[in-house]
Amino acid sequence: MSGKPTRPLEGIRVIGLEQYMSGPYCTMLLADAGAEVIKIERPGTGDPRRSIPPFAERDGKKKAAGYMAYNRNKKSLALNVQSAEGQEILRRLAAVSDVVVENLRPGAMEKIGLDYEGFRTINPRIVYAMISGFGRMPGFRSDYAGRPAFDIVAEAMSGVMDLIGFEDKPPTFTLYGLADVYSGMIAAYGVMQALFLRERTGEGQLVDVALLDNMLALNERMVALYSVTQEEPQRGKLEHLWPRGAFKCRDGYVALNVPDDIVWARLATAVGRPDLVEDPRSAHGTSRATNAGFLQPIIEAWMADKTRQEVVDTLNAAGMPTGPVYTARDVFADPHFRTRGMLVDIEDPEVGRHTFARSTPHLASAPEIVRQAAPALGQHTREILEGILGYSFGAVDDLAARKVVGIHD
Length: 409
Known about the structure:
Layout: E1 13-17, H1 22-32, E2 36-41, E3 55-58, E4 61-64, H2 65-70, E5 74-79, H3 84-95, E6 99-102, H4 108-111, H5 116-122, E7 127-132, H6 151-157, H7 178-201, E8 206-210, H8 211-218, H9 220-229, E9 244-249, E10 252-257, H10 261-270, H11 285-290, H12 292-303, H13 308-317, E11 322-324, H14 328-333, H15 335-339, E12 343-348, E13 352-357, H16 381-387, H17 393-401, E14 405-406
Parallel strand pairs: 1-2, 1-6, 2-5, 6-7, 7-8
Antiparallel strand pairs: 3-4, 5-14, 9-10, 10-11, 12-13
Helix pairs in contact: 1-7, 6-8, 7-8
C-alpha cells in the first residue's frame, strides 16, 4: 500500500445479509469507514425498503428515499440464498470476507446451515454480527429470542415509550427507527471491537446485538433511578429538575434545560427576574418542578416578543445553553450543518442529486467519506462473481437464466 492515508476499514470485506434499517445502517457505517460492503438481496425484489415510499423520481425511474439513505457506498449482489447454488456462492464469498452482518428473521440463516457456526467452519477469522429484537447468543437467550421485532417493540419494552409524551396522554413513539439506527451503530461498534481483537488472537467471533438491549442501555437513567429510589419516572413530569423542554417565543420554540441551581440563577437573571434565584418556590430543582405552572408563564412572557435567535443569543451570552427547535427546513437552511459536513450531496445516476446525513465522527488523518449512490438491484453481481469468485462470463449468464442470481441491466 502507498503511504497515503486511508479510511480505517479499507481492505475489510463485509457481507450484508440485511434488510430494512438496522443491518443496512450498520453496514453503511462500515462502508463509510472504508470497508467493501457486499449487500445480498433477493433477485427481483431486493431489500423490502426499496419499495417503501417516499420516492425520488426522474425520467420515469424512481428510488426509495430510505433505501438511498442507508445503502450508499455498497455493492449489490442479487442472490437466491434459498437455492443450493446460491448457498454455495455465499460460502465461497464468506471464505474471502472478514465480516458478516445479519438482521434477518431469527432462525432464517440457521435453516440453511449458514449461521455463525456454519460461517466459522468456512472461515475461522469471520466476524459475524447478528442483530435481532431480543438477542440470540447461546447463554444469553431468553424465551423471547425467536420473536420478530420492529423498533417500536424495543421502545415499548425498554420503558422508553412510557416516558415519551405528556402526563395526560398515552405513551408515544420517539423518532421513527430510533432503535434500528442505534442498534446499527452498536453493531458497527461491536464489529470494530471484534476486528481489533482478531488482530491479537487471529480468530473471529460472534457479535450479538439486540434492539431491546440497546434501548434499555439508552434508558439508563430510568434504571439508575429505580434502583436507587424505587421511583418510576413519569411521562411528561419532572420531579427533581426544571425547566427542561420547549418554550414558546415569537417565531417558534427554543429548548431549555436547567440541571442545577447555578444554571437557574443565570436564566432567572437573564429574563429579568433575579428574585426567583432565592424565592423558595424556585430556589431548587424540586421546588421548580413542583411550581412549573407558576414559572413557565414568566419565562414565556419574557420570550413572547423575541425571535428564537434573539432568545438564543441572549441566553447563550448569559451562560445558559439554549438552542432553537428546528424543523427540517431550518436544518437545511442553517450553514452550521454544511460547515460540519453533515449534509452530504450524493449524485444518483438514475434519480439525480439528493442530500443525506453524513455518518460520524470526523477523523483528522483520514480522507473524507466516499459518496457513491446506493446501488441498483444486482448492479455488482457480475463484478463480484467474476472478479472476486472467479466465475466465467458464461457461468454468470447461466446462473442468471436459472434465477440463482440477478443482474442489473
